[in-house]
Design a protein that fits this description.
It is found in: Membrane. This protein is mainly α.
Length: 318
């Protein structure tokens, strides 16, 4: 049974982009099928974060101590490139305030858990990816409200304390509970692990479809600029992550991990915060980013998978 679940999860993960596109199109065509999901976005993301915590061990954070330079550089790329790119693109394309706030939230978010799966497909450094995601997720408690206030406050007033409490409830508590479950209920968590990628994929699909359903009318009448901003933001993040990794001599395997980590945002978290603290319109960017990044991420990781790592892989092992 676990083997069958693993194969099915791998199949769903591989075609995640296509599944999300299909459900998103259905949500646009028949919003009523998914509109019920929107009020439950935050707890659904908590389920994903709990599952992420169950896959982690405290030892996964050893990268922070063994290779602090690589982690610090990765975090600098994550919380430097994406928020600034979001701000500049919003200015360049002159997005309305609510849409701009949604893009800023996406840019200020930590890397998404999907980056770990994509890194695995791309034959990148998975432990490095997991460590970056985990540390960035915890740092987002302080950095995400701060960055949103500094960059997004230009358009819309930001409740920094409210954002902080929401991130604690959606991210920190579920991840800590998952880590605790892994530590003290290991037999049960081991049985659940094969089903977690499938559960995460289905929940993410539901969240994206739900957000699109409640914003169907706005999306259908949205200006092309917001679509362009989402696509350019993601592609520039992927490119800059890879370029910076090469410039910092992280090696090919770790470079692929950083590329996907920087370009793949926790857009679900950004969407939940937009719905809670701003407006449904602010959630459009997160929903669109969720769809697009799964398409671009799947294509890129599959491309990387076909390319040899070469001798460059030894650099990050030194």
């Amino acid at each position: 049974m676990p083997r069958l679940a693993h194969r099915f999860s791998a199949l769903v993960t591989r075609f995640m982009g296509a599944i999300i596109i299909a459900c998103s199109a259905l949500a646009l065509w028949r919003p009523g099928l998914f509109a019920w999901v929107a009020p439950h976005v935050a707890p659904l993301l908590g389920v994903i974060m709990f599952g992420m915590g169950m896959t982690l061990r405290w030892e996964d954070f050893s990268h922070v101590f063994l290779r602090p330079r690589d982690i610090v550089l990765g975090l600098a790329a994550q919380f430097g490139c994406m928020p600034l790119l979001a701000f500049l693109l919003c200015r360049l394309f002159r997005l309305p305030p609510d849409l701009a706030m949604g893009v800023i939230l996406v840019g200020a978010a930590p890397g998404g858990t999907a980056s770990n799966v994509l890194t695995f497909i791309a034959r990148g450094d998975v432990p490095y990816s997991v460590a970056l995601t985990a540390v960035a997720t915890f740092l987002s408690l302080g950095l995400m409200p701060l960055l949103t206030w500094l960059l997004g406050g230009v358009w819309v007033p930001v409740d920094v304390w409210g954002l902080f409490l929401s991130i604690v409830n959606i991210v920190l508590l579920p991840v800590l509970l998952g880590l605790t479950a892994h530590r003290f209920c290991r037999p049960l968590t081991q049985k659940a692990l094969p089903f977690l990628p499938l559960l995460s994929s289905l929940v993410i699909t539901l969240v994206v479809a739900g957000i699109i359903a409640v914003n169907a009318e706005r999306i259908l009448h949205a200006e092309a600029s917001v679509f362009l901003v989402v696509i350019v933001h993601n592609l520039l993040g992927l490119a800059l992550g890879y370029i910076l990794a090469r410039a910092w001599n992280l090696g090919e395997s770790r470079g692929r991990a950083l590329c996907l980590e920087v370009g793949t945002q926790n857009s679900g978290l950004a969407t939940a915060l937009a719905l809670t603290h701003f407006s449904p319109t602010s959630a459009i960017a997160g929903a669109l980013f969720s769809v697009w990044q799964n398409i671009s991420g799947a294509l890129l990781s599959n491309y990387f998978h076909t390319r040899p790592l070469g001798a460059a892989t030894t650099k990050e092992q030194a």
